């Protein structure tokens, strides 16, 4: 009921309101603890679980959202390892790709064998993106990975 808004915030008495706030906070905490940091940061300051749910529905209910796709592609292209550890950089890049996959309907309606080939090609591009933006001290590691057959995936 907290997500859907069926369990509405009471106006009085104070004891009932306090209990509702505590229960809503528990549901909100459960939700926020089960999403990635990249998603969590968009919802952490919303007041109620229902507010979060409305925003999540608005954001993710459409399978195609060109504005969101464009923003994600830009973030991916601009992401560099920089001062991040390799694992943090990898996690950030992978999270962006996972979010992009939610919106991208490129493979919809295609034959399974075509989808497999296209996904393999996309996986290679993602590995190249990851490797290109590692710091220079990983040049030897980058070269070793690029010589592997088959190339690892993200």
UniProtKB/TrEMBL annotation:
It comes from the Eukaryota. This is UBN2_3 domain-containing protein. It comes from Cephalotus follicularis (Albany pitcher plant).
């Amino acid at each position: 009921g907290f997500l859907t808004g069926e369990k509405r915030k009471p106006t009085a008495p104070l004891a009932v309101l306090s209990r509702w706030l505590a229960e809503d906070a528990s549901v909100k905490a459960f939700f926020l603890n089960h999403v990635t940091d990249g998603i969590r940061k968009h919802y952490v300051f919303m007041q109620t679980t229902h507010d979060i749910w409305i925003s999540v529905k608005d954001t993710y209910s459409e399978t195609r959202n060109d504005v969101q796709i464009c923003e994600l592609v830009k973030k991916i292209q601009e992401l560099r390892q920089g001062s991040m550890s390799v694992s943090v950089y990898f996690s950030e890049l992978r999270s962006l790709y996972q979010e992009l996959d939610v919106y991208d309907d490129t493979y919809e309606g295609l034959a399974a064998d075509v989808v497999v080939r296209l996904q393999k090609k996309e996986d290679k591009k993602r590995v190249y993106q990851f490797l290109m933006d590692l710091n220079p001290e990983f040049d030897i590691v980058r070269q070793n990975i690029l010589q592997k057959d088959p190339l690892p995936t993200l």
